[in-house]
UniProtKB/TrEMBL annotation:
Residues 127-196 form the Peptidase M15C domain. It holds the Pfam family Peptidase_M15_4. It comes from Litoreibacter arenae DSM 19593. This is Peptidase M15C domain-containing protein. GO terms for molecular function: peptidase activity. It comes from the Bacteria.
Amino acid sequence: MALELRGPPVRSPAERLANATIADQFAQTYPLDFDLKARSSPWFDPGRARNDAFFRALWFADRQAAEASLVQVAAPRLGNVIYSVTAKRNVACQLATVLDALSNAPEDLSYIFASAAGGFNWRLIAGTDRLSAHSFGIAVDVNAEIGQYWKWTGAPEGRVGAYHNRIPPHVVQAFERYGFIWGGKWHHFDGMHFEYRPELILHARLVEGGRH
């Protein structure tokens, strides 16, 4: 009898997002250049796919453990913004370094952080059964009016239109320099969202041959 070899089942982008493997997390390379053309491709969302078991093992398995790790990171010169994030794996330290650098920028960037309230929040991603990155204390949001979010456009998944960015490139690059990715580079854009994913930054640098 001949042995029939079959590869893994083909899954749609939506299925990969809903039930990501660890390999799926690295399937798309996060673009380090400030070029938003890549996000025009449907389902180009590097970093948006998260394997729940991986995140719970790397960060926290439950809310109580996550809350016990939290510290506050403040930036008085950025509109007195205060974020509650985890101290685990140097997240709070890295965020403090980013905010300090932006506080010392020649221009006033406080408008980007006005009304910012997105730090730790143990919750599911809207419309899903997947935990948000905010649940682990590794994500922060800036001013929602400046950042914008794809669902507010009414666009269907996989067919999101242009993203009219209002966040200066050097702000995004400051976050990236210390391990945070930006949701504004996703097809399903979340321009207010920054998430600590140093493994994706390192992966991008390796793929791009150390240009950054």
